[in-house]
Amino acid sequence: MNSWLITGFSFGMFILFIIAFVFIAFVRNAEGRKKSDVFEKLFGKRANRHRLNLLYQRSYVQFQRLPLLRKYIWKIRKRLEVLDSFDEYAIRRQTMNIAFISLSSTTILVLLFCLISRDLLTVFFILFGAVVLNGVMITTFVNRVEDRLLKRSITLYEDTRHQFQRTKNVEEAIYEASLTAPHEAARHGERIYEILTADDQHKALDTYYEVAPNKYYKMFTGFSFLVSEFGDRIVRNSSMYLSAITKLIQDVNYEILRRERLNYLLKGLSTIVVLSVVFIKPIELWAKTYFPVMSDFYSSKLGFFVKVFFFLVVLLCYALIKKLLANDEARYVAKTERVLWEKLLYTKITLLRWVVDRFVPAPHRKAHFQLTVLIKEANSYLTVEWLYVQRLLLSGIILIGTVSMFFYMHSLSIHHVLHDPLRGTGIFGKLGPDELAAAQKNTDFDRSVLAAMEDAAEVTPSSLITLVSTLTQTSSNDSTTIYTANRIYQKYVEIQNEYFKWWELLLCMLLTCVAYFTPLWLLYFQKKIRYMEMQDEVDQFHTMISILAQFERMDVETVLEWMERYSVIFKDPIKNCLNNFSSGQEEALEILGEDVAFEPFVRIVEKLRLAVEKIPLLQAFDDLELTKEYYAEKRKEHFNRLIERKAFWGRIFGLAPSMYLIFLYLVLPMLYLSMTQAGASFEQIQNVQ
């Protein structure tokens, strides 16, 4: 009877499904294959999109009222504003979209893993991994928005090129291209059209330069303005404006290809680094289940130290991978806003400020000059004083943390000796219920004996034998009594040895020194990464100068202004050169060449020095056109080497935590303890024989 009911219910549902399908098809095909207005309003994509957008807008307002969430979404919004600062509703929608996805994903993962493991240290690692993973997700989504803007910008540039061939008018070409371009690019196209038709074009242009999403839009806007103001010319049987757009499109394609190859080669490495934290507990449980002797290692001081050091390795590798994978131009832009804890400590605490001043080298010292140059070369937001604030605070935190860790490790070892029944028992497989009960009974007895001897002036094996024989009511010459007393005495010796030793203090001081120099080493690493990017920016300078040199009224100062506006890595030296340009052109360019010790850039500076007085700008850079094929091949070769180098270091940093976890936390301790237990078992067999 039940089977008939189930069959009838299934058949009825199938009929209803067919009727619903026919109804939907009828509605969609009615009135000349046009959608029904009622159906579209209730279930159409536009209606769902409208509801979702309304949810995002209302959620944005509600999140602004909560302090923590307000800071969180503001952090996402600041990164999105750079890409599209003209559409407030679009920024709010994208911000809440990223916030909802990242928060919900990390919350679900945290709850899931916290239900699996109740260990306090593991929960701490999980929370740390969730925070880092949340940052990874935000960066991933923002990079997707950046990549989408770059790809859709090509459509705007190509349509502008096509419309300019038809109309021979820059303003009209950009306007027509904006009508058919994708939404993200169309917004910027409309803004550029407003600039070119504004009453005060120079002011509008400067305003746009401050909010432009990337350097390519700055370049496109600047060239369009120059052609609009001075007119187009035919150079080498080609329009100057069309050639500029072609070179711009080529640069954008290079950038898109660079990002895609980096994402392909290094995709997921930062996630692998973070997720490796989650596998600590499963590996530990598996090892304890099948190799009970591993409980000795995981409960020991060394096991705890290896686990904490693994946390530091994960943190360091994530920071290095984040620097390698940085795509946004702001990775080299100096920040002026200090971290909150820096401002509170250094500006509010007079003692800390006095201590920092004692460590900072005097301005006239060589060390101060070298640190200033290093900070400048790394394009860090720090000053020498704030660098020492970071170094001293980090070393102080590490010193307090390591000393506290060693004290905790000693208490952990004492607790392990007193309460763990599985110390040194077995190599493979679990203990049986009877063996486990016997081991727990021995552990409880040993703990009671040790507690009874806490107030004793002196503890010797003979006194322990006497006490054990009294408690167990056995003879002091009994082998079991002697074995039990020796076991308890060994535990007593281990407990007495658990104190803060001199070499532990030395190790704390060594780790403190490492922490003190870590911010300095990170600056050197950032400088190295920055040096790898220098050639790419010089190649982009070549593209820009080859276009600017075609304008008849172009001079060196204008080229420097364009380079400063377009530059990311060399921005500060070029800005200083422009500030000194009015007092002496030759001297300013000479100082610029001395400030940047990068040969390809120095070669550009030397050509600019020639173009100041001796020869025209076009003649100084005529080799860019004559050898453009060579420069194209050279740029391609540098591009491949840069990607390979970043991929090599990225794989090392990405796989280092996993290799550390497998070998130092599982394989090597297992081999060592297994060999130790095997040797002890072999000695016992020999003694029995």
TrEMBL record:
Keywords tagged on the record: Membrane, Transmembrane, Transmembrane helix
Superkingdom field: Bacteria
TM ranges: 6-27, 98-118, 124-142, 264-283, 303-321, 392-409, 502-525, 648-668
Entry protein name: Flp pilus assembly protein TadB
Organism field: Paenibacillus zeirhizosphaerae
Upper taxonomic lineage: Bacteria, Bacillati, Bacillota, Bacilli, Bacillales
